[in-house]
Description:
Order of helices and strands: EHEHEHEHEHEEEEHHHEE
Shape: elongated
CATH superfamily of the largest domain: Response regulator
CATH architecture of the largest domain: 3-Layer(aba) Sandwich
Strand content: 15-25%
Radius of gyration: 20 Å
Structural class: alpha/beta
CATH class of the largest domain: Alpha Beta
Distance between the termini: 25 Å
CATH topology of the largest domain: Rossmann fold
Oligomer: single chain
Amino acid sequence: MRKILIVEDEAEIRELLASYLTNEGYDTECAEDGVEALSLFSKKSFDLVILDIMIPKIDGYGVCEVIKKQSDIPVMFLSALNDDKSQIKGYDLLADDYVTKPFSMPLLLRKINALLRRSEPSGVQKNTVICYSGIVMNSDTMDVVVDGRTIELTVREFDLLSTLVKNPGRIYSREMLLDLLWDYDSLVDERIVDSHIKNLRHKMGTDHIETVRGRGYRIAKKDN
């Protein structure tokens, strides 16, 4: 599960971000000021930092500068400072994105997803065969075996299933899957995800993909 550090001194915004991102399948931790943020950063591993600028003790610029000297993880500024000078200073400190308040939560989520995709290491050899709970998938040959039975999947169905299988336990909302697999074309209806899940269940059996009410889908762990 990808982990995000939220650094925001306004409790309402901090809690809103944490709740929304947790519901989208991310693990979140929060800090109210720059000292607390750097303390958490030094003790734990994060995949992304969402950083307000006008925070107590050490401002967001100072926090970003320290983080970027020690790590290459993405930093996203989230600030009410919307003038060019503030944004240029943020990018000069190697921030990966700068979002101004007020902001759209769905758009913020897509920016987060994009930053995390870009930050994944390249050139790393990936396993071509994935196995989980009776499912065996070969990404080279597109072969899929479920409970000893070979099934035929479309490319999109294969990508959708492999996303779930590679991250057992993680819940994917429709929006996350659209962003990952359809590059979130605004003209694409979210129900297309439901349609593909329905097709997968028809081919695999209904007990392999769980619906988590109000949140999305995840791969099921079958009892042996």
